[in-house]
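Q: Hi! First time asking for a complex rather than a single chain. Here are the components, and I think there are two in total. Is that enough to go on?
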Amino acid sequence: MPPAPVPPDARPEHCVRAVEDLLGSLATQLASASAVVAAELPRDDGVAPTAQEVLTVAQAPTREVLDDPRVLGAGFVAHPDLAVDATYLLAWWQGEQRDRITESAALSRSVDYRTKEWFTAPLDSGAAHVTGPYVDYVCTDEVVVTVTTPVVAPDRVLGVMGADVLADTVERELGGVFAAAGTCLVNARDRVVVAGPARVFAGDALGPEDREGTRLRCGDLPLWVVVCAWPGGRERS
Amino acid sequence: MDDVRRLGARTRSAVFAPIGDVGRAAGVERRLAEAIRSGILTDGERLPSESDLATRLGVATVTAREALVGLRSRGLVTTVRGRGGGSFVVGPRHDDDAELRRWLGSMTRVELVDRGTLYSANLAGCAELAAERAVPDDVRELRAVLATVDDDPGGRAPVDVGAWRHVDIELHLALAALTASARLSRAMMRLEADFGVLLRLPFGSDAHRTRVRRHQVAVVDAVETGDAEAARARIRRRVREALEDLAELGAAVS
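A: Yes, that's all I need. Here is the structure of the assembled complex.
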């Protein structure tokens, strides 16, 4: 799917819409996948599921998220207390072939993902979260943007549903409209996700002077379109 | 070939230093290919004979021959038979910036800044160590590298952009060599191939060249006074500025 055409008179509102089309719709899909997993995972007898049961439950709802070729990988990440026979459990599929990430590949780096922003933030807020761009060591070793939604049962936390999009892909999809509007997309940590002006790069931190300006929130996502005060570049003195 | 384009002995001897056990033919080929792409070995230059190459790299003659066959098939060297013959470097056409611009235009800024950050962090580390380690003779050599081209904005002579690019490579590899780490120096050579050609694409602009020259002089000054922090910061700024100029160029192309 090619990026939507950029209107020549693009305004910040167009940027908001483009973000909602790409990341907002992904968050919506993940939220419905989360609901499926949350409904099917707890067993009636109250016994903790096995890793294999978790994989089986997570696979079908994940497949729909993976239908979008812009998604690099997606799946369900279990809370360490969830499965009876696994601590760190990734039901995650990625790449062209949508192969499952094996335990050994991801966990040989002994990554305890309980402290990761993409894991904690949606569980803390109870809503979709967007992390990055950041270097993801757990699955891809690439610079990615990750959307995650909480998966919770009435009495406990089960994990998160998530999807990775390459930062490269995000730029190819959204860069045009942000460049035309002269705006940047920033995340909850005030870091640039998509840079409109040429002299700003994704990953740059927003300076104090830029936090004052106009910003538009992208729906319910913790992402804001800001009108940049630094088109001349950030690190020049 | 004009003298300005000749590289310093240190850089060149790194290219021909013993390659060890890990390399063999593929290693020889890779090292020479990187040197050709990054401009350390220049277009039209004659490579040492197979047996000389083998001796200097510390590999068997048959290994050197195999590497040359590989380079030939990649179009990076050409072999002329008979008297006065030998293997000659076929350098990238740096005058053909159009090719580089197309590459830049097809690249996302995420990728550009990714390459640039790796380059910048390595080179900044080199500059920091160079500032801690350099003795006055080293500084003299660095200044001699810079002196091979003149900053003469608005001057009458046409600017030799290739020579400017060459001096910049030479300076960066000399900073790497001052760390006395062969691995770090080889890493910088690989990064020259990965990003160096892009870094120096904006050299056609007078304003860009003038700014780069200021940074080059400031880095050497910092090395001279042993100010590692200033050397590091200057390299970071020099690369960031180039990234910003490149992003503007890229936006104009795509």
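A: The first strand of chain B starts at residue 77 and ends at 80. Let me know if you'd like any chain examined more closely.
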